[in-house]
Amino acid sequence: MKTIGLLGGVSWSSTIIYYKILNELVQERLGGQHSAKILLKSIDYHEIQSAYGKDHDRVAALLEEELRGLIALKPDCILICCNTLHKYYDMIKERLVTNIPVFHALDLVV
Q1: Could you give the number of structural domains in the chain?
Q2: Domain for residue 29, yes or no?
Q3: Burial class (CB in 10 A: 0-12, 13-18, 19+), 4
């Protein structure tokens, strides 16, 4: 089974939904007591919210730092559990040198 990296905490309540759905899908597909292999890195939302809409470079830098920490744990893929952070991801994605795919929640919906 592959390991999913979740970058959550923005907000923590939306992160719960991702965690719940991923585990429900794994249990549905594999049965028994199977659950998803998940690495969860949770951001302190206060840090993001304090700069959000005022200092785009600061939010991008915070996101980059958190993603680098998650990338270091070597998940098979990463999902950012917050739609609003994806515009900041677009600002930094070229600086993140990794083969780990980062899935954009909006791209998955489209």
Answers
A1: 1
A2: yes
A3: buried
